[in-house]
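Here is a typical protein record:
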Amino acid sequence: MAREDKIREAMRAVGTYNEIFETSIRQLGKAERELSRAEKAWKASGGKLVAELVSKTGQTYTAKDPQWAVVEQMRKDVTALRNQLGLTPTGLNKVRNAQQQSAGSASRMDQLLAAAHDYALDHASEIQADVDAYVSRVLSGEEGACQEIVLACRRYVSDLDTGKWEFRPEPPCEIIGIIETMICHQQGEALDATPMRGKPFLLLPYHKFIVWNIMGFFWPGSNRRRFQECLDFVPRKNIKTTFAASLAFALALYERASGSKVYEVGGALKQALEGFDFLKYNLRRLKVTVDDDPDGLRIIDNNMERSITGDVGDGFVSINALASNPDKQDSFNCNIVIADEAHTYKGPKQYQILKDATKAYTNKLVIIISSGGSNAQGFLAKRVEFCRRILDGTVKDAYAETIFVFIARAPTAENGEVDITNETVLRAASPGWGYSIRPQDMINDAAQAAADPQLRPEFLNKSLNVFTAALRAWFDIEEFRRSDRKYGWTLAELAKLPIRWYGGTDLSKLYDLTAAVTFGHYKGVDIIIPHCWFPRPAAMVKAQQDQIPLFGWKEDGWLDMTNDNTTNHVDVVRWYQQLREQGFRYRVIGHDRKFCREYFVAMKKARFPIRDQPQLFYRKSEGFRYLENSAKRGTLYYLHAEPFEYCVQNVAGVEKTDDAVQYEKIAPELRIDIFDAAVFAACAYLDDMTSKSAVAGAAAGSWFGGEEREGDAD
């Protein structure tokens, strides 16, 4: 029996056959024969899903095997034709839904959802082709994307190839179908100045890539989605807020059977209302509110509440727009959270409370969607760096598998600078380049920012996703980390080495962070052993207000918390005593006696060689430069201490005419005390080295019978 006859027989069995379908039946028969030949050729070539390809520039990259791509596309074409003829469960449902709609039994929302479902079926192969083409362009370098987007695409290809996850294209196609059939632009213009109000909200390739990932991967053999958190870190005007609102609406409808509750939380209410007003416009345009349908969605928009609620079929939908307020949001219970403009969040508590609100659901999603900011030590900056480590494979824990990461930001040079006059750099940070980002406008803005320094910080923050406080920092923290990773001595091993140790202590604010550092030099390597103290009563407040990871440092053993309102200087003395008992022999310990003379006396009483060391910037500059050069040489080791890294990142400096550096904190709420103590200890080492050299020189002059000449260094 010919394929066409089998198709007709199957259609008669389900009651969908009609002579008007003969053209489609012949197309399906031909497509199935071509698919059979393509599958045989693919299997003969090895049957691989992924292959190593060569880009136009000669670079190799991993992507979908071309023969498998042909087979996959042909399978989609066959499925699409069978859907049209009602020969699949979804196709048969489509026919029956159409019959019900023609009978007038479906509500307006049901009709829209059915149309979105049909759109998803009809455009499934096109959507996947768009995603695959975007991934291919990124990996080949044709897209000109930044390194973080390249890593995201590599992760996607690897996840498909590992077999650890089950990928289902239907859910992301459904989400995209809902957005592209039900949502329209509220305002704006296309690149050719065509008004966009009322035009369908067609997703950009990077939008589809994000939806494809967060909705497509499942735990094998279950309905549990893989990704529960998402970071969408994209510069302004790349269609970010409206995408977040559309995604929230589509997810709410998709999960309506579970009683969907969505919170769109902005740093300020005004920001959250951008997405809320966008949805309100679209729902009224669709005529699915109670104003047009008694069973429609109810919109409340007043000073007390901004919400969209209502029953949809056998489910329920609730969307709320809120300003972030962690003190009043502990009782939240939802399955979808959009954390919009997270750079305004004052601490991790705001995000953690929103994340905890989703614990009652299995298929939940918390999305951070934001551009950059000025605080390089803020919650968002640290979250971005953490997620960057997920992309590059540094963080491989189980929880990392549940976080989807999409970071778009300008690449930086080795010295940390951003070349804002380079079009390649501008394009790398803009996934909407040529769509919502007008290339010439961006180039002009960059030229202005380069020429006018007062415009530069905002341009870097918002248009390139570069945290400008990091640019003001004197040190490149990666230089310190690279140097530190080269060594691995433990504290016990260091105590046994023949090293003369030097100390430096910062006791200027006993009610805040207090720091002490032990410094030594061994076979060309400079060794820093830091420790710090913080009063427990103020720790919780300061950890939240100033975003200092005090409790993490305590767990790691780098910090002690005192129960009083101030740190007792005796605790610092006791730390030095404990190290001495372990085998550390101190040559000199530097301290500015005008800060806590009691400590100076106590150290003398404990028989430590403490020396008065005034905090004069031109003297501290020597220790500063010494540590800087040691890090650049790769000879600095600080036992991988996170508190030291934290303080190093917060150091800003001003170079004087004699190349001396006067350093300070980048911002008032940050701390540099541990780095300060390291500088004191390095100065003590350098002073002692000079003293020993002078003594040795004097002894040599006496040995040869000569007298010290006038003008010799002492």
The CA atoms of residues 485 and 569 lie 33 Å apart. The chain has a mean pLDDT of 85. DSSP finds 26 helices and 21 strands in the chain.
